[in-house]
Amino acid sequence: MSRYFTQDHEWVDVEGDIGTVGISEFAQGQLGDIVFVDVPEAGKTLTKGSDAAVVESVKAASDVYAPVSGTVTEGNAALADSPALVNEDAEGEGWFFKLTLSDPSELSGLMDEAAYKAFVAKQ
Amino acid sequence: MRYLPLTDTDRQAMLATIGAATIDDLFVDVPEAARLSGPIAGLPMHASEMAVERHMSALAAKNVSAGSVPFFLGCGAYKHHVPASVDHVIQRGEFLTAYTPYQPEIAQGTLQVMFEFQTQVARLLGTDVANASMYDGSTACWEAIGMARRITKRAKAILSPGLHPHYVSVAKTMAKYTGDTLDTAAPTLDQDFGIDTLIAKIDSETSCVVVQYPDILGRIADLSALADACHTHKALLIAVVTEPVALGAIRSPGEMDADIVVGEGQSLGVGLQFGGPYVGLFGCKDKYVRQMPGRLCGETVDADGKRGFVLTLSTREQHIRREKATSNICTSSVLCALAMSAHMTLLGEAGLRRLAEINHLGAVAAADRLAQLPGVELVNGAFFNEFTLKLNTEARPVVRALVDRGILAGVSLGRLYPGDGALANGLVVAVTETTTEDDVEALAQALAEELA
Amino acid sequence: MSINPAGWRPERPETAADAAPATFTGNRALMLEEPLIFETGSTETTGVDLADVPIGTSRLGGLERARPIGLPGLSEPETMRHYTRLSRQNYAIDLGLFPLGSCTMKHNPRLNEKMARLPGFADVHPLQPVDTVQGAFGVIHELAEWLITLTGMHSVAMSPKAGAHGELCGILAIKAALDAAGEGHRKIILVPESAHGTNPATAAFAGYTVENIPANEDGRIDTAALLARLAPDVAAVMITNPNTCGLFERDMKTISDAVHAVGGFVYCDGANFNAIVGKVRPGDLGIDAMHINLHKTFSTPHGGGGPGSGPVVLSEALSPFAPLPFVARHADGRFELIEEESAGDDHPHSFGRMVAFHGQMGMFTRALTYILSHGADGLRQVAEDAVLNANYILRSLEGTLHAPFAKAGPCMHEALFSDDDMAEGFSTLDVAKGLIDEGFHPMTVYFPLVVHGAMLIEPTETESKAGIDQFIGALRSVAERAKAGDASLKTAPHFAPRSRLDETQAARRPVLVWREPVLAQAAE
């Protein structure tokens, strides 16, 4: 399984042609207490860079963009009752949605974990 | 000048601290060509309280106030007796001159009032939740249509013929920009509320059906079947209540399974005020709360574990979501909401029910008295405190003539639907606890003479 | 004798907080706790004496409300006590300076309240025949004439219910004008990145795409960038002037001329009109529409969050598209109401109706009362004193707090600071909360977004010099504590009716209405 990161602080774990998407540990720290996550519905088509989800803290709402194109298979239902999961485990249990990738070649434009860490260090 | 505390000595001292020679040095960024050299010509200079009072009183004296004559107007704004305490509550400086409660530690007064108001309104309307108020009923109605569009992802709204024509007009104006299609029609001068006709129009493209309850002609009907029909087609039922006192006597739209209930709170606590400021009511089912526009107050605790209240779910609002906000609304009508809440607290449930009974039975007696007159027919079967009479001639000139006899006789449908011949003979009459038997008798006699 | 403007400071023992005893009631002398009406009232109690119910048979068509509603009542004395106790938990203009930037929290004169309550204004119905309400139309018309003259514009739409509503009105008038000219394909509205959130929200509602124009280092709009972006796809520009950094946009006329040259319109957000009323006419700067917040510049009360009122002055080009209804005056002095019916032939281009009835009449009487009291000379003095007070604060505090634009020149009616100099881990929020303990409402924080940790302070003209000096002293003291890393600021406020509230919980698990607590069965 490989993990890729975008410059907008989304991550995507890819296994076969299924991707799991969330926001990075760095991003959740910046946002503060997460109070609500609006995840996409199964069946929704996303193109790379388009609006995929919204993550709300008390004072701000941030758009989460699709790191790659595809069709949503599942939104993380656990976030409805426990949005705090994103703060507690952003890169694990706090995933936002899964999708089937329509164009795996898009992954080549994303960063790997080391590159993302370096990118964040410069923020 | 009485509102300006700075003295010339103060101004000089402050300019010295700033390091400016004159006040105009501080306006240096204004281009020369745009700077006015003195007070704008042709406008009066400052005036004492006494002079201003004289001027404003003269203007006020040119108006016929509702309390000075037999008065029967309704159609979206109602005259009720507001207890003297209410005005004193809203004139407390800490309520009157407070800001929006963005710093909750020093705004628990406003916030607790908002929480109590939200609860009272939700219970009155029969909804799970309610917001802390909108500008008025007409904008609340439009916002509800917008909310239905967001929830159903459909754009066809059916507006009942019984919806206030101003509310229809606002919706028509706004729909031009959102692409909503509105199915509208003028009411007919009969007792049919129109449930069956509305049900027949619902299809898989319908976002919502909007009804007014009681409607513009004062008609009421059971909305349950309409709610079912909406839900079968996955559309929402929106009910609009322009006379909340009615809900002290008749079943709430929430109980009849309406999804969104909006309204105008003016009749409780606020007074006629020639049309504003008023207070929009907005309630809905729990599952839709994140789509609800307007301010919301929520309960929480402070660092010491004490219960307190804060504005919440703000991320729906424009100052945070900017282009993606649920609406561009920035404010609510909190002072009017306080007035309504205080009035409801003074009434209590038993008082509200009794007030509603007095209104209804007073209206029944008036309707029967007026229907006895030759040339006058009562249109309504059921009604609350407002009913429509069908005269044997156009109503608008009759209303005008009755003004000369010292009576404000109600709202002619010709005023609300100009050019609609089928409605021209309709006169909508409202009767509240402020209407006396003498008032009704005066109207009856004057009307009899006018129609003879 | 000389008076210590900072007041008497009592000496407090180190363990002062621990030394204060608990009370039975939870009250602390005049700081009184007050439960909800749902906890103290009852559905059977009423504080109103009603007449006997008349004899008669109900005609409610079987729709009687049978189920309990759940509305508690209180007697009149309990009601007055409930709301009076609640009111005392609020800060208000009547209590002290409210330094909120762009809110213009000026004194709310009580003559306004008295005039609004005259029965001839308070007790008239909006649908009464027009010749029974000529005085009410007279107020609307007279206020409209003042607003038009003060701004140098052509007409004014009086019906919008608040500032944001007025902003919508202005943008819809612009859209109608463009559609009528065959320019309806224009899709872009340019908005400075420092703008208030209503600006892009309004533009988006009207179907426009918003493009941000950056600010440059002197806090003003990057005029070159704006002019470079002007093209035939631009419908309008929305500018706040003075802007949200409290600075006058010097290039306003240049911008207006350039926007007109490409066929677009200029909308001006009038929230900051208090800085220039009577000194500058926005019409002279080439604007096409501007909303005016009567609850800001013209002293109508904020009421804890509304009602406001947002009339919109319009240029000659936009006037034909103004919304309905409006008041028109005949040559013989008689007023008429132009509604949908009378609009027909004379005003066919109106974009429509925004609200039922005529607008915020109660706010019109208040604002007109205020305007007549000040007059043309007084209003000009209002702007001068407002600008003077803000500059006094700016210069008095620029040594203590970082003021990003202070070196470049004066500010207008509001002063902007940032949290650049604070200790590690301390921010604008801590300064705000510390100010509460000093007896002030905090200034506007974290707006505008173009400055880090922004603190925007607008004193208005109704503050005395002594009051401002006390505020300056307090803010200086709190700021110094933040720069020194004083930990007690992190848990401020200490003396308010409530300490910091858990907003996260309120948003994660919203509790928006009262529910009767479920009584748990005692365990067997």
Can you say what the CATH homologous superfamily of the largest domain in chain C is? Type I PLP-dependent aspartate aminotransferase-like (Major domain)
Question: Helical stretch count of chain A?
Answer: 4
CATH architecture of chain A: Beta Barrel
- Largest sheet of chain A, if any? 6 strands, antiparallel
Strand content of chain A: 35-45%
Q: What is the CATH class name of chain A?
A: Mainly Beta
User: Termini distance of chain A?
Assistant: 27 Å
Poorly predicted sequence stretches spanning 5 or more consecutive residues of chain C: 1-16
- Termini Cα gap of chain C: 73 Å
Query: Percent of residues of chain A in helical segments?
Result: 10-25%
Task: Provide a quick synopsis of the model.
With 123 residues, chain A is an alpha+beta fold. Chain A has helices at residues 25-31, 78-81, 84-88, 113-121; strands at residues 2-5, 10-15, 18-23, 34-38, 45-46, 51-57, 61-65, 70-75, 97-101.
What would you say this structure looks like, in words?
The complex is a heterotrimer of chains A (123), B (452) and C (524). Chain A is an alpha+beta fold and 123 residues long. Chain A has one domain (2-103): OB fold (Dihydrolipoamide Acetyltransferase, E2P) (Beta Barrel), CATH 2.40.50.100. Chain A is 20% helix and 37% strand. In chain A, the strands form 2 sheets. Chain A has a 6-stranded antiparallel beta sheet with strand order 1-2-3-9-8-5. In chain A, strands 4-6-7 form a 3-stranded antiparallel beta sheet. In chain A, a hairpin with a 2-residue loop joins β2 (10-15) and β3 (18-23). The longest helix of chain A is centred in the last third of the chain and has 9 residues, at 113-121. With 452 residues, chain B is of the alpha/beta class. Chain B has helices spanning 8-18, 49-60, 84-90, 93-96, 108-125, 137-152, 165-178, 195-201, 224-232, 318-321, 334-371, 395-404, 413-416, 437-451; strands spanning 129-130, 156-159, 181-183, 206-212, 236-241, 260-264, 280-284, 297-301, 307-311, 376-378, 386-391, 411-412, 426-430. In chain B, β2, α7 and β3 form a beta-alpha-beta unit. In chain B, α6 (137-152) packs across α7. In chain C, α8 links the parallel β2 and β3. In chain C, the strands form 3 sheets. A 7-stranded mixed beta sheet of chain C has the order 1-7-6-5-4-2-3, sandwiched between helices. In chain C, strands 10-12-11 form a 3-stranded antiparallel beta sheet. In chain C, strands 8-9 form a two-stranded antiparallel sheet. In chain C, α4 (110-116) packs antiparallel against α12 and α7 crosses α8. Chains B and C meet through α1, α2, α3, α4 and α5 of B and α3, α4, α5, α6 and α7 of C.
